[in-house]
Design goal:
alpha/beta, eight-stranded mixed beta sheet, 9 helices, globular, Rossmann fold
Length: 242
Amino acid sequence: MFINNQDYLNAVDTLIKSNKNLENRTNLIKDEVLPFLRSHQHLLDVGIGCGTFTRQILPFFKKATLVEPEKEILQSFFYAGKTKLERVLSSIENISLSTSEYDLVVMSHVLYHIPESKRLNVIQKLYDATTEKGTIVIVYEDSLDRKALTMNFGGTCFNSEPILNFCKNNFSSVDVSTFENQICYDQLEDVHNVCRVYLHDAFITAEKNELSRWIKENLKDERDEKFYIKSTQYSIKIKKVN
Ligand SMILES: C[S@@+](CC[C@H](N)C(=O)[O-])C[C@H]1O[C@@H](n2cnc3c(N)ncnc32)[C@H](O)[C@@H]1O
């Protein structure tokens, strides 16, 4: 569906720039997490994508470990600040992490890429790697439009319920917040890019004409000829307290 990583990152960028989800998750970290951390030594960021979110948080930490399975994405990540970076080329499910090492662990819009059977193990691994009184922030998006698109092209919808149940049943300090968004696009090409990201997240593809037809039938408002996508961004904040 994407011809290369840059094509994928450009589409992710279209999505990020068109809504307030980035601002929302950045504010959550700045206002509700950073002031309450005991120390700001070490950040773990899982899945950096185009790096926009990562760059917002890095300045607050002395060092940071970036885990990313795509070599090109990891190597091309540019940051001019003072934070010492360690780049780890791997999927999060395939590495071991030091115990009680990271003050803040962030895994934003990555869950969909991890096989369902491994997601809970990954979350437990992140928890174990977090320092006492440290915090994990897991962000994901869910929406009826995303579900409808995924199902139309034969994919399986991302199911967050097992994740929420696991967190609530296993960790004592869990806070879930939601952020509603409506994105409006004038150009079909931009909606195309966003839908391609959604399909990629669900490990499926769609033929271009078919996708255009689905978009026009389901996301276009005939009154103003614009395209609308509604979504909800979920942030799970887990504080490690015993
Ligand atoms: C949509 S981007 C998210 C970027 C950023 N975290 C944000 O919230 O804007 C998803 C990133 O996760 C990476 N990724 C995919 N599977 C992963 C895995 N199993 N472990 C770690 N990162 C993964 C992708 O290569 C991509 O860079």
